[in-house]
Amino acid sequence: MGRKRKERVIFENIEILDAGAKGVSIGKAPDGKIILIPNVVPGDVVDVQTLKKRKQYYEGKAIKIHTESKNRIPAVCEHFGVCGGCKWQNMQYEQQLFYKNQEVANNLKRIGKIELPEFEPILGSEKQFFYRNKMEFGFSNARWMTLEEIQSEEEIDSKNALGFHIPKMWDKILDIKKCHLQEDPSNAIRNEVRDFANANNLTFFNPRDHHGLLRTLMIRTASTGEIMVLVQFFDDEKENRELLLNHLAETFPSITSLLYVINQKANDTLYDQDIQLFKGRLYILEEMEGLHFSINAKSFYQTNSDQAYNLYKITRDFAGLTGNELVYDLYTGTGTIAQFVSKKAKKVIGVEAVPDAIEDAKANAVRNNIDNCAFFVGDMKNVFNDAFIATHGQPDVVITDPPRDGMHKDVVAQLLKIGAEKIVYVSCNSGTQARDLALLDEMYQVTRVRPVDMFPQTQHGENGVLLEKRK
């Protein structure tokens, strides 16, 4: 017996009421259930075709717009709506900031259920396009076909693609002509790689059967003008590999760091791979207030350099350092925040789980002639214990910038145990941040909150919170 065909219903004249999680917007169906709809703007009135029916909600797509929201604008990117990367590009920027601020407030109130001060104004990004310093692209020998291409009946010369994964489709790559997230020469480099590979019959990766020469491309840029390019190969073909890399080096002499890796494992993550230097040096340099930070292929660094600087200034301001404090910087990464605040502190202790990041942090401290920072590697929940505190001292201020999952409960418990006077909590996920703030509420009061927009045209952002010990 064949699978039962899903019933798809059309709801007419649905007003889009709000912006929801993951970049979708929210309407209400005639039966009272909410509808999650991508690529629409609050204030639009649309006809919606349902795609999935859940117990509490529908998922659908807009098939006709009757009334456009006053906050709707034309998307600048030809790939908008298919790529999935800039889900709010059709929304006025001021309205994007409004909804990002609203999401932080909702999470802290509904999940945290704590007393909150009045929020400080969300800090928007001066650059609303071409702000990212890192982009990663995938190769595929069976690119995603748009509906227009499928219906056109035109013969497709090449099915190779270099671009982004289609949302929720790990094996489908959309070929990108121009991306508005990273400054040139990013687009020029990516397009040249694709065109040269096609002209020279270099094979593109097949993600299902795992074969092909070209697997991924990473481009990193810095505010100093330095550029890193890393090509990830699957097949080990020295002649073709060097053909492409030599062409890149000759065509783009401004590339500071030209790297490659041969990765034949099931996934394309770099953290367990040996990075090979083809030309230049293994890192590029980022600069902030006269400090220089080396960024290698595996380094974590905030992807919006300008807003990272603003975020770190807010962090330093929240910490209110006088020069006499012992500061702990948890989840320090390559030590950027630790070194940024070090001139206002007596000493800074940075802790991070990734060994390569700690090596970078130490090297950066030497480069910047900073002698009041010390960095230690280990799993935070294991390292940040009583013995560590006894060895390195009772902190006056703790800065924590954990990954999206937030802090482990043992780390929160240790923070409550040591009772530093202030905690500055920076987060890229206000939901998990709210959970942690609720746990800290027994000892700490949130006294300042300021969201920062690190990622214009998307639903993502950062949030800075100051907690002060209750008297």
Describe this structure in words.
Helix content is 25%, strand content 28%. The chain contains eleven helices and 21 strands. Strand 7 and strand 8 form a beta hairpin. Helix 1 runs parallel beside helix 11 (430-440). The longest helix is centred in the first third of the chain and has 20 residues, at 93-112. The mean pLDDT is 94.
Task: Show the helix and strand layout.
Elements: E1 10-19, E2 25-28, E3 34-37, E4 45-53, E5 57-67, H1 93-112, E6 134-140, H2 147-152, E7 161-165, E8 173-175, H3 186-199, E9 214-221, E10 227-233, H4 238-251, E11 257-262, E12 276-280, E13 283-288, E14 291-296, H5 305-319, E15 326-330, H6 336-341, E16 347-352, H7 355-367, E17 373-377, H8 380-383, H9 386-392, E18 397-400, H10 409-418, E19 422-427, H11 430-440, E20 444-452, E21 462-469
Parallel strand pairs: 3-5, 10-11, 15-16, 15-18, 16-17, 18-19
Antiparallel strand pairs: 1-2, 1-4, 2-3, 4-5, 6-7, 6-9, 7-8, 9-10, 11-12, 13-14, 19-21, 20-21
Q: What is shown here, in short?
A:
Helix content is 25%, strand content 28%.
What tags apply to this protein structure?
471 residues; seven-stranded mixed beta sheet; 25% helix; globular
- Give me the Rg, rounded: 24 Å
Instruction: Give the total of beta strands.
Output: 21
Morphology call: globular
Q: From the helix content, strand content and strand pairing, which structural class follows?
A: alpha/beta
**Poorly predicted ranges (pLDDT <50, ≥5 residues)?**
none
The strand line-up of the biggest sheet is 8-7-6-9-10-11-12
Work out the helicity level.
25-40%
How widely separated are the two ends? 69 Å
Portion of residues in beta strands equals 25-35%
Number of helices: 11
**Oligomeric organization of the protein chains:** single chain
Could you describe the largest sheet, including whether it forms a barrel? 7 strands, mixed
Query: Averaging pLDDT over every residue, what do you get?
Result: 94
